[in-house]
């Protein structure tokens, strides 16, 4: 997802929906069972939940590193960046804004794979029904 966001910010939601779609595809291929759209949404949501937990761990490690003196020195060595300057000027504001950012990320990272799971369940069931 991070690579897709670096290429284009519009690719990140598509990659998240694709994660839910792939989860349904892999589940159907392994179990050979059909999924309802509600089951696809649940499977996509669980995929997003695990992705969010991985992102949360990475953010916690980054926050601890930024709070350390070596992390602050590393941020100072980065060329002109307005957001990094704000972090260096007021690190307390940065840490206070983290819970709100994580709440927004939770909804984004769990909702989009859920939608992809619904699409996967709907489209893959349609393919299965059209085959003799």
Structure description:
- Helices cover 87% and strands 0% of the residues.
- The protein has one domain (16-25, 37-123).
- The two termini are 37 Å apart.
- The longest helix is centred in the C-terminal third of the chain and has 40 residues, at 91-130.
- Helix 2 (11-31) crosses helix 6 (91-130) and helix 5 (82-89) packs across helix 6 (91-130).
- It is built from 6 helices and no strands.
- It has helices at 2-7, 11-31, 37-67, 69-77, 82-89, 91-130.
- The mean pLDDT is 84.
- With 132 residues, it is mostly helical.
Q: Whole-number radius of gyration?
A: 19 Å
Structural shape: elongated
What is the CA-CA span between the terminal residues? 37 Å
Helix content: over 70%
Task: Report the average pLDDT across residues.
Answer: 84
Count of helical segments? 6
The overall number of domains is 1
Content of β-strand: under 5%
Compressed to H and E, one letter per element, the order equals HHHHHH
What ranges have pLDDT less than 50 throughout 5 or more consecutive residues? none
Q: How many beta-strand segments?
A: 0
Q: Biggest sheet: strands, sense, closure?
A: none
Structural class category = mainly alpha
